Structure formats: structure tokens, C-alpha cells
Amino acid sequence: MTAVPSDSKSGLRREGRYLIAALVVLLFALLAATLAFASSLLRLNVRAGSARMAAEQASVLAERTTGRARDEGLERLRREQSIARIEVVSPGKSATASGELPGESEVVSHEIRGTLVVLYYEPLVLFGGREGTLTVAALVGLMVIAGLLILIVYLPKFLRPVDQMLAHAQEINERGDVDDDARYLVQTFRSAVERVQRQASEIEHLREAASSQTPDLGEIMRTVERNFQSGLIAIDATGEVLSVNDAGRQILRLPSDVSPSRITDFGESEFTEAVLRSFESKVGVNRIEVALSSSDVIVGCTTVPLFDESHYLGMLVLFVDVTAARGMELRLRDMESLVALGQMSAGIAHEFRNSLFAILGYLKLARQTDGNDPTPRIRAAEEEAKRLAGVVDALLRFTRPLEVRAHPVSIDALTRDVIARFSEECQDVHFSFLTAEGVIVEGDADLLERAIENILRNAVDAVREQHPTGGGRVEAEVTASPAPAIVIRDNGIGLDPDKAATLMLPFQSGKPHGIGLGLPLARKIVLQHGGTIRIVGQPGEGAEVRIEFPMGGSGGT
Questions:
Q1: Phi-psi bin for 216: left (phi > 0), alpha (psi -120 to 50), beta?
Q2: DSSP symbols for 345-365
Q3: Cα–Cα distance, 473 to 460 (Å, whole number)
């Protein structure tokens, strides 16, 4: 059942009052105009009759009298009949007149036995004349038209709701033998009200029955805790601890003879603070990890506020001991670090071993001069030693902490500049660039430029190895959505997906003369900016490096 807005109700009553007021005003105006019209017609009829009699008397005076007697008779007649001027024109005689001609007058003329008598009357006031009568008649017609328009405009507004009510009433109650619409609507309304009252009473009875059959929170918890393997605490709406199951006591290190009654009885700890904060705010938390003060135990905690409609019933606290799992994660992380360190050490040992073997070989040949100049061999050994020193310097630079001087950087403009520089230097490789304008991140422009250069240099080496006679392509793209990103693709030699992660480790280069610090340095720079870097590809099908930056900021130093 749709409720009618109060504005609609007040608007309908207001329009009804306006309609009644307009009809009443129109009725009074129409009544006044009708009275005025009748009065005007009556006065016109009276004047017309008196004018006929006055014209006959004036005609008789003109026929039977002459001179002074005729003038006095016409003057007396004019005053008795309230005539402003009388003019008499008889055949064969001169015209005779009595009275002054008024500025405005109503003229009545009669021809009696050949004599023309013209009578001039003062205009009647208050719709007394012919013009007044026509004006009153026009006003009456306009009022009738206005009344019809009012009825045409407003009557449907009142009849339409009645029709709708009758239609709905037929859905609720059969009409039967009732012919009067008003009586039928009243009967239907009464039956609907009685039905609603009966339904409301039934709903109230059902609600009372449901309330009486609903078990309390403590009973529910005693049932649940017997079958729950994780820690479980039940707290009612007042903050009283109803129960703690056995698993929870074991995790919290609670003695069997201790029964906490309030949340603060669990002692000062991150766990107690988290539960108390969630209880007071009536907002649940999901899988947060907090520490217990009594030991090094780490607890994974979830709180569930309980509501019955709008009533706060209390809270359930579910928690598990994740100390062992976190210790295993730490050991796994340490093992991963050791594996990475071992791979990096193997790379360093490989570089040093190759360089040392070369230096020793050159020095051995230099001792066996056989009459030849040993200078070239010594110089070669010196160059290899310099290369080894360069590797050491590169390693030191890589391990040195980076200082990020963050400021707004347009990575689309930065990437465009680096691509342009590589296009001039590498004429045998085709470069393309696609970008969204104005992609800004917070970062260090010099460091980001070095990272992009290292990735592009690896891409150029890969396409030259795959396409030695030309045809290599390197594509760069900068996007702004869903997060700022730089994507660099090539059609080079590709990579083994299983070895993609090792390419980000130092000294893992697959190039004959590479050191293996380009991609690791790029990864370090991206991580220092709070971003991520990922490399994917297939052997012989090229590779793709994707750098993503956080939305609205970057990392620190």
C-alpha cells in the first residue's frame, strides 16, 4: 500500500479551497451582474414608455397651440418628464424646441401623425442606459465562461482520485447492491481499516511469540563453544564477558580458575586494545594480527558485532594463534634471501674467476717472452684487471643506498626523451612510443631516467641478438589508468619464464660481456619509488617489462 505524501494531501485540500472560493466569488459576481442587468432593462423599459407618452403630448401641443402657449406647454412637459430637450418638427410649420442640448444624452425619437418629436434624456447612471445594459450582458457572459473553465480545469482533479478509489475499492471489496458511490467507498474504507487492524494485531502476537522463543546470547555461546576449535569470546551489549572457550583460554594463557568479566581483564596488550576499540565503535575488524603482552604469541583476530534489527546485542571475538605460521614465513623469507645471496655470490664468483683466469693467462704468456715484446700481454692483463675493478665499482654502486629526491615528474615526457636519444644512437632498431599526456608521479627524475635507460639497453641488446641484420622493434607505452605505468616491449630473443625472477638479481646477465646489474638497479630504483616491476616473455618471442607506480605518491629514500 503506497502512502500519499503529505505535500499531495495539502495540495489537494488547497486546490479544493481555491475552487470553492472561486465559485463563491463568481456566484456573487454573477448575481450582482444579473440584478444590475435586470435593473437596467427595467429602467430602459420605463423610460421607453414615458418617452412615447411625452412624444404624443408634445405632438398635440404642436398641433393645437402656437406661440407662447406652445413654448410654455413644452417647457412644462420637459420638466415633468425629466427631459433635457424636446424638439418638434411639424409639416408646414417651423421647428420648435425647448431646453438646452446636453453634452451627453440618450436620444429617443417618435413620429406621431406626421410630426417628428425628438427627446433628449440625461444618461442613466449605474448601468442604466443601453451601453450599460450591453456592458452588464457582456460581463455576465464572461462570468459564465470563467465558471465553465474553472469547472473544466479543476473538476477532473477531484473526480480522478474518486475514480481511482472506486477502482481500488473493487479490488478490496465487492460492490454488491450498493448504487451510491460515496456509501460504497465509506464501506470499503471501514472494512480495509478493520483488516489492517486485525493484521497489525496478528503481527504483534507473532513478534511477541518470536521474542519469547529466541534464546539469549549466553545460551548460544555455550552451544557454539563446545564445537569451536579456534579461540572464541562472547561479550554482551554492556561489555561483560559471557564466556571464553577452552581453545581461547589456551591461546590467551588463562588459568582454569580465572574467569574474566570485562574486556580489560585480559590485561594490557594489543589484543585487548583491538577488541575494546572494536566493541566501543561497534565496527568489526577482519583478520588483524596483534601481540599478547604475556608472551611472544601473535594472534590473528576477527570481531563480529551482533545486532537484532536496531538493537546492539554484543560481540563475538574469534582468534587463532599464528605464531608458528609467522615463524615459518620468517624462515622461508630467510631461505629465499639466502638463495638470492647464493645466486648473486655465484655470479660474482663467475665474473671474478673469468677475469682472474684471463689476468693469470696473460701474465704467464708475458713470462714466456720467446724474444717477443711482453708489453701487449701485460696491457691485456691490465685491461682485464680494470674490467674487474669496474665490476667491483658497479657492485659498490649497486649496494650503496639510493637517495630519492622526490618531486612531480612527468613520466611520459621523461620516457619520450629517453626514446628519442636511443633512436638517434641505435639506427638499426625501430622505436615507437605511445602515451597518455600529463602522467605525473612523485619521484626522482634522474633515477627514473637511469632505470628506463637500463631497461631499454637490455631491450636493444635482445633485438640485435635476435635480428642481427635489422628488423628489431622496441615499443614503449605510458598509461595513466588504472595506475601510472611504463611498459617496454621488444621482439628480441625473449626469456625463459622460469628464469624471469633471476634476471632481477645482480650478476645474472646472459650476455657475453654483461655484468648483470642493469635490471637489478632498475628494480631497486622502482622499489625505492614505491612501485613494482615485472618482466614476462617467451623464448624467441620477445619480452615485456612493466613498471607500475602507486596512485598519488611514491616511496621514500
A1: beta
A2: HHHHHHHHHHHHHHHHHHHHH
A3: 8
Residue labelled with grid coordinates 704468456: 365
CA distances from 411 to 160, 404, 419, 444, 546 (A): 67, 15, 12, 10, 13
Pairing, β 532-537 against β 440-443: unpaired
Contact 493, 465 (CB under 8 A): yes
Written as nine digits, the cell of 557 is: 629514500
Task: State the pLDDT at residue 4.
Answer: 44
Which cell numbers hold the place of 448?
627514473
Among 399, 412, 405, 416, which Cα is nearest to 445's? 405
How far apart (Å, rounded) are the C-alpha atoms in residues 28 and 34? 10
Distance in angstroms (rounded) separating the CA atoms of residues 465 and 539: 13
Whether the Cβ atoms of residue 271 and residue 322 lie closer than 8 Å to each other: no
Number of Cβ atoms within 10 Å of the Cβ of 110? 17
Grid cell at residue 362 = 696473460
Backbone angles phi, psi at 251, to 5 degrees: -70, -40
Within 178-289, where are the H helices?
A: 181-213, 217-225, 246-252, 270-281
- Whether residue 317 contacts residue 303, with contact meaning beta carbons closer than 8 Å, is answered with yes
Cβ-contact 334, 362 below 8 angstroms: no
**pLDDT by residue (tens digit) across 297-346?**
888 899 999 887 778 888 999 898 888 777 777 667 655 554 555 555 55
Q: What is the pLDDT of residue 477?
A: 92
- The per-residue pLDDT for 487 is 94
pLDDT along the chain (557 residues), means of 10: 46 67 74 70 70 79 78 81 80 76 76 81 58 68 76 70 71 68 74 78 75 57 66 89 86 83 86 90 88 77 86 88 78 59 57 63 64 67 66 61 83 91 89 87 89 89 88 91 90 84 66 66 86 89 90 52
Q: In whole angstroms, what is the distance from residue 151 CA to residue 155 CA?
A: 5
pLDDT on residue 150: 72
* Alpha carbon 219 to chain centroid, angstroms: 45
C-alpha of 245 from chain center: 46
With H, G, I as helix, E, B as strand and everything else as coil, classify residue 85. strand
Which has the closest alpha carbon to 514: 447, 464, 445?
A: 464
- Cα–Cα distance between 94 and 132 in angstroms, integer? 36
* Three-state SS at 257: coil
pTM score: 0.39
- 28-34 long-range contacts (CB < 8 A, ≥24 apart) are 29/143, 30/140, 30/143, 30/144, 30/147, 33/136, 33/139, 33/140, 33/143, 34/140
